[in-house]
């Protein structure tokens, strides 16, 4: 039985990946700085430990053939684009990747999957919200819009350097806004689909929600099940990447909010307020992944939003509104995905 390690298994994507690997017959060890908040994972082993600590990583990679490295210090725009967390984001994530690669090679790990991000793409190619350029070959000259993106780009090069020098197999996927149930939905680190689902669920029938900036910034969003399928295809292929893993169904943030309102059956007003924006437009370019892996998303955005809204609305109902719920502690997440 092949043994796999999911680093960042206590996070959103990592938790879903553990379930998929177990369903395929893998022996799975998960590791994170915390246990999964929303799900009891079927991992054969789950280690709670800090991946910035080399000794913790040496224990985690022992006896493992495949490593899925999803652990990072990250969050949504409210966490990544204020500038307040830049040093922690770069330091924590770089330390994790350095440790995982060095200890993994020494332990005889055969293959690494590294979860990179669309945030590595140059800001100058994403100024027009209607025509962003995010093809894999457009990354240089490099100019990511955040320190998070710079660290991801550094780590892509780190993984490929280890592949060249030590002969390990590496697969790199650039995630574009993955969303779905069992992900962070409050506390400041949530991504826009989860934040908007929460706001709509908490709003009264004729209330209003807030959106940062004018809401005309564009993004595409990929449902979690689609993401995991693409990751598994990439890992089992002979293609290193980097390759985009995302959707080409681009929407404005205003339209995203409207879609969630339609699902909820609420007609709410939108109030635009100042806030961190990121790039003006971003959309996955899926030409390469279609060509090399014969993969494309199988469902429209609305279907994934319906599943996500139902889950978040249930959380809101269970815990009450954010103002009534106990505030979350804002701590460093060195193992979060």
Sequence of secondary-structure elements: EHEEHEHHEHEEHEEEHEEHEHH
Give the proportion of residues in helices. 25-40%
Let me know the CATH homologous superfamily of one domain.
NAD(P)-binding Rossmann-like Domain
Structural class based on helices, strands and sheet pairing: alpha/beta
- Rounded to the nearest angstrom, the radius of gyration is 19 Å
- The CATH class of one domain is identified as Alpha Beta
Overall body shape:
globular
Unreliable runs: 321-337
Biggest sheet strand line-up: 3-2-1-4-5-6-11
Q: Mean pLDDT score, rounded?
A: 92
CATH structural fold name of one domain: Rossmann fold
Explained architecture:
The C terminus is likely disordered. The chain has 337 residues and is of the alpha/beta class. Helix 1 crosses helix 7, helix 4 packs parallel to helix 5 and helix 6 packs across helix 8. The protein has a domain of 201 residues: Rossmann fold (3-Layer(aba) Sandwich), CATH 3.40.50. The protein is globular and about 60 Å long.
Task: Furnish the topology, listing elements before pairings.
Elements: E1 3-7, H1 12-23, E2 27-32, E3 45-48, H2 54-61, E4 66-69, H3 77-80, H4 86-107, E5 111-117, H5 147-166, E6 169-175, E7 178-179, H6 192-202, E8 208-212, E9 218-220, E10 222-223, H7 224-236, E11 243-245, E12 250-252, H8 253-264, E13 269-273, H9 287-293, H10 301-319
Parallel strand pairs: 1-2, 1-4, 2-3, 4-5, 5-6, 6-11, 7-10, 8-13
Antiparallel strand pairs: 9-12
Helix pairs in contact: 1-7, 2-4, 4-5, 6-8, 6-10, 8-10
């Amino acid at each position: 039985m092949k043994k796999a390690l999911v680093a960042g298994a206590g996070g959103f994507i990592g938790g879903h990946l553990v379930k998929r690997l177990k369903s395929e017959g893998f022996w799975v060890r998960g590791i994170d700085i915390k246990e999964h908040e929303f799900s009891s994972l079927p991992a054969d082993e789950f280690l709670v430990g800090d991946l910035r600590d080399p000794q913790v990583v040496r224990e985690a990679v022992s006896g493992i053939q495949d490593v899925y490295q999803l652990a990072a210090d990250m969050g949504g725009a409210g966490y990544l684009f204020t500038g307040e967390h830049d040093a922690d984001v770069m330091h924590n994530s770089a330390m994790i990747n350095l440790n995982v690669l060095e200890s993994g090679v020494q332990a005889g790990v055969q293959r690494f999957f590294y979860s990179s991000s669309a945030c590595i793409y140059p800001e100058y190619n994403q100024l027009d919200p209607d025509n962003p350029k995010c093809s894999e070959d457009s990354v240089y000259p490099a100019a990511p819009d955040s320190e998070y993106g710079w660290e991801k780009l550094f780590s892509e090069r780190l993984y490929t350097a280890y592949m060249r020098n030590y002969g390990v197999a590496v697969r790199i996927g650039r995630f574009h806004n993955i969303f779905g149930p069992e992900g962070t939905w409050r506390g400041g680190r949530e991504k826009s689909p989860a934040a908007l689902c929460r706001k709509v669920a908490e709003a009264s029938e004729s209330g209003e929600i807030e959106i940062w900036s004018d809401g005309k910034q564009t993004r595409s969003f990929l449902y979690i099940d689609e993401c995991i399928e693409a990751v598994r295809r990439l890992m089992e292929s002979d293609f290193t990447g980097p390759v985009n893993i995302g959707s080409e169904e681009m929407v404005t943030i205003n339209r995203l909010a409207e879609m969630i309102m339609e699902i909820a059956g609420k007609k709410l007003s939108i109030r635009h307020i100042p806030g961190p924006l990121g790039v003006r437009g971003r959309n996955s370019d899926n030409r390469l992944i279609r060509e090399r892996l014969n993969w494309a998303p199988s469902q429209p955005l609305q279907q994934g939003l319906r599943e996500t809204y139902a889950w978040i609305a249930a959380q809101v109902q269970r815990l009450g509104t954010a103002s009534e719920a106990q505030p979350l502690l804002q701590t460093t997440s060195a193992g979060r995905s």
